[in-house]
Write a structure and sequence with these properties.
Elements: H1 10-23, H2 36-43, H3 47-59, E1 63-66, E2 70-73
Antiparallel strand pairs: 1-2
Helix pairs in contact: 1-3, 2-3
């Protein structure tokens, strides 16, 4: 539960919740961090706040972002899990 009236900014509270999921092993290295849209919906926050969550996780060394793909748990350059797209499979016509 977020404390919307407290002294800790909302983005830090959400980042802490995700960090706790990483530390408990619910999110593993290479797993995607919830998207901005999912964070918006789940925590009822603005898109700019959701972006700050990803930035906070990157600054803490908990995640990295690949433009056009998303934000993933771990250090930059680590393998990541694809969650959408073709996954390398193409159908010939």
């Amino acid at each position: 539960m977020l404390d919307r009236e407290g002294p800790v900014p909302i983005y830090k509270q959400v980042a802490d919740l995700i960090r706790e999921r990483i530390e408990r092993g619910e999110l593993k290295a290479g797993d995607p961090v919830p998207s901005e849209a999912k964070l918006e919906k789940d925590y009822e926050i603005a898109r700019t706040t959701a972006r700050r969550v990803a930035r906070e996780l990157r600054e803490q060394g908990m995640a990295y972002t690949i433009q056009g793909e998303g934000t993933f748990v771990g250090k930059p350059g680590a393998p990541h899990t694809l969650t959408s797209g073709f996954h390398g499979e193409f159908r010939q016509t």
